[in-house]
Amino acid sequence: MAVTIKDVAQAANVSVASVSRVLNGHATVTDETRAHILAVMKELRYVPHVGARSLSTSLTNTVGVLLPDLYGEYFSEMIRGIDRAARSSGLHLLVASLHGGADEAVAAIHAMRGRVDGLLVMSPHVDAAFLAANLPERLPIVLLNSGAGGGAYSSVSIDNYSAAWAMVEHLAPYRSIAFITGPAGNFEAQERLRGYRAALAALVPGARATVYAGDFTEESGTRVGAALAQSRRHPRAVFAANDMMAIGVQIALQAAGVRVPDDIALAGFDDIPVARYVTPALSTVRVPIADMGAQALRRLIAQVGTGIANVAGAVPGAVADTLDAQLVVRASSGTTSVSPATGRIPRKGD
């Protein structure tokens, strides 16, 4: 039989209420009593019943995380940051990926109802109307790199538009600069494309925008790279909307004998860990991926702790945190510097 809170109280010769106060961290318990009860718990190998504690506190001590995918270094870094902040706060994570469309997002949200104290959401399938229609009332939510909130929900993001502009500015001396997009409907991909187009028009007058379709996977980058290698006329530089696609391009070009950066300069976005280890090392935009996840978790904890939650599709006092990105210049874009040149990216107006 499992050891119960009553067994602990009896063995420690204290009331059940005293044991409960120790479990819930109440300051009214003396240090001596707390140490005694904890020692008895350890001796009896008592494990608190999470469900019972949830009934008494109305909290599950669990946070839901909805991400577009769980594969790849970007999402690994994101989860690492969220998990680090969660563990430091004594919280657990319930993670789901959203490979499908809006119906799958609805199913995931409904599956987490009653099981989590709040939600972190990064999904291309949600907008403000979707959230208002499908979120359980009074469930705190924080959005990650999403345009869905429109100020109605707290969010943590980077300025993708300004970051893309900065990379085009770095590549501007090549003049002929192509761009590989991310998935259709993805907010980050749209903002990076928008920054590319605006910067190219402003900084390289007369240059033609050349856009190739991608989906954030290495395979889509490989397809573009293979097509470029076979083309008689190719751009002088390629800017991919994320590092995985840029690495795919690099693999295909090198397999075909096309030199990077001598024949085609190359840049990505995100600065995933592997970006610095490919040869030549990849120029990119450094996104504080793990920090973004940790900040979103801290923002959600603040909402849970203060009782600020979504009511009829809005959060009173919603906060939009925008973290700084950095331009990281490495050998793939033509620099001869061994150490990467980095710089904070100033934010641009539309």
UniProtKB/TrEMBL annotation:
SUPFAM superfamilies: lambda repressor-like DNA-binding domains, Periplasmic binding protein-like I
Gene3D superfamilies attached to this UniProt entry: 3.40.50.2300, lambda repressor-like DNA-binding domains
Domain HTH lacI-type: 3-57
GO molecular function per UniProt: DNA-binding transcription factor activity; transcription cis-regulatory region binding
Keyword terms, alphabetized: DNA-binding, Repressor, Transcription, Transcription regulation
The organism's place on the tree of life at top rank: Bacteria
Protein name: Substrate-binding domain-containing protein
Organism lineage: Bacteria, Pseudomonadati, Pseudomonadota, Betaproteobacteria, Burkholderiales
